[in-house]
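Curious: explain these tokens?
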Amino acid sequence: MFDTSTTALLRAVLDEVCESASRRQIGARTHVATNILEAAARGEVSPETLKQVGRQAQSQAPNLWR
């Protein structure tokens, strides 16, 4: 679906956005990852835009971070 460099960017953005969440919080990470992937599929590949999308996903589902 995405080339190697875009995939690496998406992983880096996900890790940065979710750095405060445990890797065991799979539901939270999945929610954020889904939003980031959807943005990338629409052509958003700017790191800052993807981070913003990820942070917005976090704020829309605060119960996932408990």
Remarks:
- The mean pLDDT is 89.
